[in-house]
Amino acid sequence: MKYLSTRGHAARPEFCDILLGGLAPDGGLYLPETYPQVSRAELDAWRGLSYAELAFAILSKFITDIPANDLKAICDKTYTADVYCFARPGDDPADITPVHWLEQGKFGLLELSNGPTLAFKDMAMQLLGNLFEYVLDKRGEQINILGATSGDTGSAAEYAMRGKHGVRVFMLSPHGKMSAFQRAQMYSLQDDNIYNIAVSGMFDDAQDIVKAVSNDAAFKARYKIGAVNSINWARVAAQIVYYFKGYFAATQSNDQQVAFCVPSGNFGNICAGHIARQMGLPIAKLILATNENDVLDEFFRTGMYRPRKAAETLVTSSPSMDISKASNFERFVFDLVGRDPHKVVELWKSVDAGGPFDLSASEGFARIGNFGFISGSSSHADRLATIRQVFELYGTMIDTHTADGVKVAWDCAACVPAGVPLVVLETALPVKFAETIREALGREPERPAELEGIEQLPQRVEVMAPDVAAIKHFIVERVGA
Ligand SMILES: Cc1ncc(COP(=O)(O)O)c(C=O)c1O
Ligand SMILES: N[C@@H](CCOP(=O)(O)O)C(=O)O
């Protein structure tokens, strides 16, 4: 399988090179030259597979430069009930991502947050940790990962990479904008290969720094800079798997369809759903849910993409989605404009200069219905009401991001064809956002025993200005040492 850049760079690398490379040399994002198609016979054969078997079957279509036996061993090692052990009582941890039905067969949560850091990022990040180690060992190389987080990617990456040989992680987070639990998860790690940097600014500032450093080809090559954000194709590829698993769990036969509602910020999670649908998975609707930072909702309603500046991005109680410049959105727009890299370059010239673009009158936007997307947004008051309602109606406690998803799923339910199960992706567990759970329910969320008292542990973090040169200097000093 060869990959191309959304901005048209001539090279056509294979998977392992883009795993280590992250962004394409022209600043674009990698996508497969064509999306592999899944036949009905394959869907039938995959229905009974375990998560690890399914991951191997799907990833084999995208990863053709790792021997099959090795890829299978990596999937088997990654997707175990020991790693993804926090399933809700009554749901089987062996399923890895069980569906928790709120209304049997009709309305459920796809449990994606049962991994070590209690957010859906673990689904891909644990695999990346094992893939990085495998490829770096084979090549005798090292990597210095530079990442940006609004709260969950950071801890998932750090937990996945801690102790891995050949890997250092430099993780930028927005200073003072994450929950106390999220901060503690990251900043309490004392491993030698983990560096936390809190930048004064928002997630988008941190993400811009990651892109600026990655776009300095000489620096990137000299200091072996890699990526773990969903700009790295490997993240998206790994996330495709749970759409298939969720589909099989929610249906009895491959003649049925499913609708997924996806809490969205950087557009990585739902981009994986889009690709699963392009591969032939029978997804009736992909419902995109935002919080008050509703740039993506605005696009799907109007065709206008208007990224906001950091000062206009709100700090909300679903902080991991406080994102106004969704870097992964470029992958979807590439498909929307007929995979024309010149159009993408033109559109992102405006975005990179802080401007909007308007596709409302374009041919692509006229066909947007074919992609199955609908969207909606949610507010702090909606989150509180939804957390309360789900708890009262079903006895199930959900986190603030999943609450955004449930609220928008309810708003959009009328657009889902009759008889089609509606599944909301559960993107984090409530304990990560205990402040808002207390406000909504007047009680503490459940907390795994191993994470008891995490907020009281000593923390190690460097606070810095969002300054590209200073961040580079920080990396050079650590890597040199
Ligand atoms: C808990 C949670 N929910 C939802 C999202 C949104 O996912 P994405 O950025 O892939 O759209 C994120 C991160 O962005 C997250 O951490
Ligand atoms: N919500 C994310 C933001 C980064 O998204 P990514 O999927 O591109 O890594 C976070 O929690 O950090």
From TrEMBL:
InterPro entries: Ser/Thr_deHydtase_PyrdxlP-BS, Thr_synth_N, Thr_synth_N_sf, Thr_synthase-like, Threonine_Synthase, TrpB-like_PALP, TrpB-like_PALP_sf
Domain of life: Bacteria
Record flagged with keyword Secreted: no
Domain Threonine synthase N-terminal, residue spans: 2-79
Cofactor: pyridoxal 5'-phosphate
One Pfam match: THR4_C
Signal sequence extent: none
Domain called Tryptophan synthase beta chain-like PALP: residue spans: 110-341
E.C. designation(s): 4.2.3.1
Coiled coil (UniProt feature): none
GO terms for MF: threonine synthase activity
Record keywords: Amino-acid biosynthesis, Lyase, Pyridoxal phosphate, Threonine biosynthesis
Pathway: Amino-acid biosynthesis; L-threonine biosynthesis; L-threonine from L-aspartate: step 5/5
First-level EC class: lyase
Catalytic reaction(s) noted: O-phospho-L-homoserine + H2O = L-threonine + phosphate
Family as reported in the entry's similarity comment: Belongs to the threonine synthase family.
Official protein name in the record: Threonine synthase
Organism whose genome encodes this protein: Aromatoleum diolicum
